[in-house]
């Protein structure tokens, strides 16, 4: 099946921090792929902005190199790449000074969508917002895109929201959580709300529990000092895992409309119970050999660090739909495999007419976010052959790469999709300010509890599934984590 590409309106997209790591790895290669897909109008333009002095040619060379390195097979299309680079421009600008701003003001065209991607440190968001207004560059229809981390606690998130609100309305602010741009995550909503099959079973009466796993094989190398001030709870749970939990747990919105969807997600966050200390396990990876070489404390260059590189927790939702069905969340670095999965584990049938069958399993709907985005529903069937009525589990497999694209390259990356949504003015897959604040309000007491108790994370071996204690979190409820595998 060839996916349908609907071109967007013409735009001027300014990427502040256009020479930085995120722009080079994700934003610019993603825009090139959308260009190849035919989604970009002929006269759409991308304007890089940062302090470094360079001209358009210098910026185009930098982007060509980034696409060569991070653009995958698409980067080999030389003619198309040259045509794409023609749309790129550059303005040298300091967010904290006034140089360069008049040139940017002059470069912007009237009558096209204006979008400003803040791919810079959050400390600069206020300066950018203020200068965009002072120099008359932002219009009431302009959009700004802001990156994570959106605050490090409730107070800083509120302050950041207040700063942006001085110059932009909520409908102009696009807070990116790239997990929401993944094909599977959106398909989760389609599966739930476009089929009659699942919704009647989607509640505590039929779902035993839910597991959300985001496992990485990499450590914090290179970003150690940044990560050490954050940790898995702030870096992953408060945003990505929380968003996934909301999409699974939310009530059907009355319409697939940005505020209707976000209202329902917000209700879920409000319904989260405080997490008890015994329902959380924090971990920190050890070194592979003797001593601390390669350990978290070595990578973070902080021998006494108590920051977690792994966290697992049991979350309860206090509402009619989910009371009694726990959601187990875990995420960590240097684990056995790079794998992200949501597993909806259904209850067993109330009575087995086949007696005590060996190998009996409950139905599981597994939603894989990476690698191989797709969904699998495990069902019990009769084992083929004349051996009597023996049951076996088989997967009903739907790999999106097989079903929708030739080899998966048709599936847009999360960043590509989200940037096109910004140009279209569709905020459904972006976090609203009150959602972010509610998520911090739930997260803050958990972190404060660790700090007052002086909790130390448990050690775990690189390449393992995390600390032993995390296994106990489920064992004690008579359940098991699903295997972490690619
Ligand atoms: P980075 O590699 O350090 O790049 C920062 C960019 O900002 C550079 O282009 C830099 O160029 C520019 N810049 C710095 N100070 C500036 C100023 N005063 N005025 C104008 N431009 C300035 O950072 P990054 O990794 O790309 O991250 C950018 C943002 O995305 C951060 O908020 C980060 O938390 C977030 N993020 C990044 C990733 C990632 O994978 N990298 C993932 C998620 C979120 P000059 O020095 O020439 O000015």
From TrEMBL:
It holds the Pfam family G6PD_N. It catalyses: D-glucose 6-phosphate + NADP(+) = 6-phospho-D-glucono-1,5-lactone + NADPH + H(+). Residues 189-482 form the Glucose-6-phosphate dehydrogenase C-terminal domain. NADP(+) binds at residues 17-24, 51, 148. Substrate binds at residues 178, 182, 216, 235, 333. The keyword Cell membrane does not apply. Residues 14-187 form the Glucose-6-phosphate dehydrogenase NAD-binding domain. Pathway: Carbohydrate degradation; pentose phosphate pathway; D-ribulose 5-phosphate from D-glucose 6-phosphate (oxidative stage): step 1/3. Its EC number is 1.1.1.49. The active site is at residue 240. Keywords: Carbohydrate metabolism, Glucose metabolism, NADP, Oxidoreductase. Belongs to the glucose-6-phosphate dehydrogenase family. NCBIfam families: zwf. HAMAP family: G6PD. Catalyzes the oxidation of glucose 6-phosphate to 6-phosphogluconolactone. PANTHER family: GLUCOSE-6-PHOSPHATE 1-DEHYDROGENASE, GLUCOSE-6-PHOSPHATE 1-DEHYDROGENASE G6PD. This is Glucose-6-phosphate 1-dehydrogenase.
């Amino acid at each position: 099946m060839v996916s349908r590409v609907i071109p967007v309106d013409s735009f001027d997209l300014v990427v502040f921090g256009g020479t930085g790591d995120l722009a080079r790895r994700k934003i610019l290669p993603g825009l090139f792929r959308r260009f190849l897909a035919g989604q970009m109008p002929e006269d759409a333009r991308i304007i890089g902005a940062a302090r470094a002095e360079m001209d358009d040619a210098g910026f185009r060379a930098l982007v060509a190199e980034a696409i060569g390195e991070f653009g995958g097979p698409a980067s080999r299309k030389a003619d198309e790449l040259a045509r794409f680079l023609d749309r790129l421009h550059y303005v040298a600008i300091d967010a904290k000074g006034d140089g360069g701003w008049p040139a940017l003001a002059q470069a912007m065209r009237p009558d096209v969508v204006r979008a400003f991607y803040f791919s810079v440190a959050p400390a600069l968001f206020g300066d950018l917002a203020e200068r965009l207004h002072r120099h008359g560059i932002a219009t009431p229809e302009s959009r700004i895109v802001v990156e994570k981390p959106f605050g490090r606690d409730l107070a800083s998130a509120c302050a950041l929201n207040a700063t942006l609100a001085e110059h932009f309305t909520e409908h102009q602010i696009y807070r990116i959580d790239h997990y929401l741009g993944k094909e599977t995550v959106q398909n989760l909503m389609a599966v739930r709300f476009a089929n009659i099959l699942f919704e009647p079973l989607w509640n505590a009466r039929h779902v035993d529990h839910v597991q959300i796993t985001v496992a990485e094989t990499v450590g914090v190398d290179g970003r150690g000092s940044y990560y050490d001030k954050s940790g898995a709870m702030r870096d992953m749970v408060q945003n990505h895992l929380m968003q996934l939990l909301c999409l699974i747990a939310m009530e059907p919105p009355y319409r697939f409309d940005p505020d209707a969807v976000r209202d329902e997600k917000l209700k879920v966050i409000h319904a989260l119970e405080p997490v008890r200390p015994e329902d959380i396990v924090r971990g920190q990876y050890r070194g592979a050999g003797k001593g601390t070489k390669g350990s978290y404390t070595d990578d973070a260059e902080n021998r006494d660090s108590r920051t977690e590189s792994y966290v697992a927790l049991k979350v309860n939702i206090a509402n009619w739909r989910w009371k009694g069905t726990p959601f187990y969340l875990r995420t960590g670095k240097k684990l056995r495999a790079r794998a992200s999965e949501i597993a909806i584990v259904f209850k067993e049938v109330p009575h087995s007419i086949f007696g005590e069958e060996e190998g009996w399993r409950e139905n599981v709907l597994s939603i894989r976010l990476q690698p191989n985005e797709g969904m699998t529903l495990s069902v019990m069937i009769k084992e083929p052959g004349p051996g009597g009525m023996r049951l076996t589990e088989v997967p009903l497999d739907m790999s999106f790469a097989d079903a929708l694209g030739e080899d998966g390259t048709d599936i847009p990356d999360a960043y590509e999709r989200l940037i096109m949504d910004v140009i279209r003015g569709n905020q459904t897959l972006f976090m609203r300010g009150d959602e972010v604040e509610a998520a911090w309000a739930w997260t803050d007491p958990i972190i404060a509890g660790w700090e007052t108790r002086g909790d130390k994370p448990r050690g775990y071996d690189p390449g393992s599934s995390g600390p032993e204690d995390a296994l106990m979190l489920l064992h004690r409820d008579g359940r098991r984590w699903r295997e972490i595998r690619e």
